[in-house]
Specification:
With 268 residues, the chain is mainly alpha-helical. The chain is built from 12 helices and no strands.
Length: 268
Amino acid sequence: MTDTHISFAWIAAAGLLAPVLSFATSKKVPAVVFLIILGVLIGPYGLELTTDSEAIDLVRELGLGMLFLLAGMELAPSDLKGREGRNAILTWIICALLAFGATMALTGGETGTATVLAIALTSTALGTLLPIIRQQGLAGTPVGNSVMIHGAVGELAPVMAMALLLSARTTWATAVILVILIARGLPVLLRELGGHTGSSLQGWREKLQLSLYAATGLPIIVAVTEVATTSGLLAEEEASLLVAAGALTVAIFPTVADAVGPTKRAVH
């Protein structure tokens, strides 16, 4: 048996074990979180039970593509044309500008680096959030519907921005999980608290939930950093740190959002 076959066996085992562990916690901890933990455990930086290969890379790219596909299948384009959709787009632009300003300060005015970081920090992992939303019983609720809209913008806008804006070759400074929350989550929360955005959210708890879900962003961060490292904008170690921060958002933000949220209510 080759190393690739062994790696696939461990990956399959992790995929089967994650939902079992989630069920053991009464689904308080999403299966996605266990997938991340198990991935770190069996990966080349953990127990080294799996190795990188062309086949593994292909599966990884297919998995990332499936996340985008599933997210697109759940999205109703008409939602983005409504009042909440327009406000979500405006909020993302505000997030991007704030993140760009903060990363410009952190990088000492390195425009290309600040652009990469701003795009990555203002993303939302909608594909990753979909199973979490369903598992936590939020599908069809005001919070779930608003997460879908903000999540769609948080996935589509960074991809479009990557295609349009990345050109300069520079270095970058360390980004931390707090910056992700401030850059993406805080503006969403302030916009919801400061005025009527077209959402059906009631009370600060649901609005805080939305901000935490909107700041959850791993797949887009992976995609952005992969493009950036390939084009020489980011070093491998720096990109790994940013991806690790994105993984932490998946592990922490949805769990905190579920804890702070009110009793779930359905849309009538």
